[in-house]
């Protein structure tokens, strides 16, 4: 993968590990005399552990890119069409309200009434919905693996909720965005950004409102925040509840220059019995909006807009 960023940001992991080992030797040199053999033994023992950690993160990053490029990955989304109340025609003809890249000239109509979407095929024809031919189908719920999905050749169409607005998403296995994808770029793995934090529960769970990149408002639940220390500065990040994990939506002083301007995402495990969890910024990654304008992404709450540089995780994308 070509390195097109600032060379100092793209040091190879092995070089970073070597500098850490040298720092350990220098630190030990200020202590009372320690036999050289013990220093060598220390490095021999520590280095494989550090390298195992680097390998783990690099393997996770490879998997992240493969999931992004998959048939159901974010790169295949090729359209986001917000519906007007009433009938919205779709097909490949430019006379439709929703114009598709390929498929029948007039494939059908999406009818939005009172918050419900119905898909109808032209008279005497059918639509393939979840593998079954039908003339009419309700397109709800909008989320989940079992959501009603229309297939038209390489295209899949399904509903999407952005705040209070309903839209149709189009997934295209042959999308220009997928074909033109140039790969992800990352900061070197740095274990200093793998930080133990203290979970601080709210007095009671509550809902917060987050704007997304299109100006719609999302309501999410939070049960607490995590306090941690970085470079001598205490940070406190609100955690959004997501399945059984903590989800952090954050921005820092690298945003807009080295990393994606709007935000980055990061997950952590729930706190253990000691009330602590590990926040590993080496796993921080870009939201789908960094690659694809047909996606919607929440913006960070004010308290998660950090006045520090997080030089770890995924760099901004360049096509």
What does it look like?
The chain has 319 residues and is an alpha+beta fold. The chain has two domains: 7-71 and 182-304, no CATH class; 77-172, Tumour Suppressor Smad4 (Sandwich). The protein is 17% helix and 35% strand. It has three helices and 17 strands. It has helices spanning 13-29, 36-69, 176-179; strands spanning 77-82, 86-91, 98-99, 108-113, 116-120, 127-129, 132-134, 136-138, 150-152, 155-162, 165-172, 194-211, 217-230, 233-242, 245-250, 264-268, 276-280. The strands form three sheets. Strands 1-11-10-9-6-7 form a six-stranded antiparallel beta sheet, with no helix packed on it. Helix 1 (13-29) packs antiparallel against helix 2.
Short overview:
The chain is an alpha+beta fold. 17% of the residues lie in helices and 35% in strands.
Name the helix and strand elements from N-terminus to C-terminus, one letter apiece.
Answer: HHEEEEEEEEEEEHEEEEEE
What structural category arises from helix and sheet content?
A: alpha+beta
Taken together, the total number of domains comes to 2
Low-confidence stretches: 1-44
Radius of gyration from the CA trace? 24 Å
Tally of contiguous helical segments? 3
Proportion of residues in extended strands: 25-35%
Q: State the helicity in percent bands.
A: 10-25%
Mean pLDDT: 87
CA(first)-CA(last) distance = 13 Å
Number of strands: 17
Could you say which overall geometry the principal axes of the C-alpha atoms support?
elongated
Sheet of most strands: 6 strands, antiparallel
